[in-house]
Amino acid sequence: AVRQFAEKLRAEGIEVPVVGVGSTPTCSNPPADGLAGVDEMHPGNYIYYDTMQEKLGSCTEDDIAVRVLMRVIGHYPKKNLLLVDMGWTGCSKQGEAFHFGRIEGHPELKVDGLKQEAGLLKAADGSALDFAKYPLGTILRLEPYHSCAHTKQHDRIHVLGHDRKTVEATWRICQGW
Fold first, then answer.
1. What is the pTM of this model?
2. How far apart are CA 63 and CA 45, in angstroms?
């Protein structure tokens, strides 16, 4: 659509020096007719991906590069909930309808709600949690719903090695757009 609009403007004698298109889905799944006439690509979160892009078909779970770590800090057996130290200040409120993402390696869990500094996890299917599987101090990793919003909540990114445990670099996040 942007290419065609640029062509119409040029046909009217209006200079269009650059045609730029964006969105991670366009970058991940270019149109069948290609991107001829496009000078710039603005791919959004293409380098990170997230569960929203996975749902759109832009990537697979293995392509999602961002995780937000959280620690189990409380058990509430009467309410069948785990308390974690990740609130909306750690992962943003985007994706609430999709439980803010997915807990890596734990399809039995989902984020039930977020407070400012803490969050609540419950069984994805509503069954009783086995609290012994999640002792206090257990580290869990959230694959975010929208990595742009989640990443922007922090001032740095820890880049992990192929083992997904060893920090190989730390990148500072730029402030502003």
1. 0.83
2. 12
